[in-house]
């Protein structure tokens, strides 16, 4: 698996768990005396969590170097391509921006280097579709798309 220039393989650290979450955007509309119907706003953001456990001493501490670089990429907020290569070929997931990275370092050696690291990287899909871009631009510009109806009697 790769996110941009970062390879999640055995020499550095490999991904053991991929957790994917997709939640559509819906809002209940208040109605007096009835169950609120759902207002369907469209697709929501898709999130992928990549979880990994690695042992830096087994791989000449290369995993720690990559972890430091991934932390910098998280702060840069740059969308990068997410690719997964398996026995059936390559799956290209599109462009993803890191929204968080959590890591836990345990069992330290005499030099203070962790012997075990558990990392969890959360990525959010960047959707470059024209419809989504137009909606975001309209919201930022304050454009009102509401319709008004005048009845003349």
Automatic annotation (TrEMBL):
<dbReference type="Pfam" id="PF06995">
    <property type="entry name" value="Phage_P2_GpU"/>
</dbReference>
<protein>
    <submittedName>
        <fullName>Putative Phage P2 GpU</fullName>
    </submittedName>
</protein>
<dbReference type="InterPro" id="IPR009734">
    <property type="entry name" value="Myoviridae_GpU"/>
</dbReference>
């Amino acid at each position: 698996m790769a996110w941009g220039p970062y390879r999640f393989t055995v020499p550095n650290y490999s991904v053991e768990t991929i957790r994917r979450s997709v939640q559509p955007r819906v809002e209940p509309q208040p109605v007096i005396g009835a169950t609120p119907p759902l207002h369907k706003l469209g697709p929501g953001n898709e999130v992928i969590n990549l979880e990994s456990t690695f042992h830096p001493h087994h791989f000449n501490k290369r995993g720690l170097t990559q972890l430091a670089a991934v932390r910098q990429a998280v702060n840069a907020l740059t969308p990068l391509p997410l690719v997964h290569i398996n026995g059936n070929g390559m799956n290209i997931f599109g462009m993803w921006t890191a929204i968080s990275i959590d890591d836990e370092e345990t069992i330290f050696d005499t030099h203070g280097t962790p012997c075990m690291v558990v990392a969890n990287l959360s990525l959010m899909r960047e959707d470059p579709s024209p419809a989504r871009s137009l909606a975001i631009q309209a919201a930022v510009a304050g454009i009102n798309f509401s319709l008004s109806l005048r009845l003349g009697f």
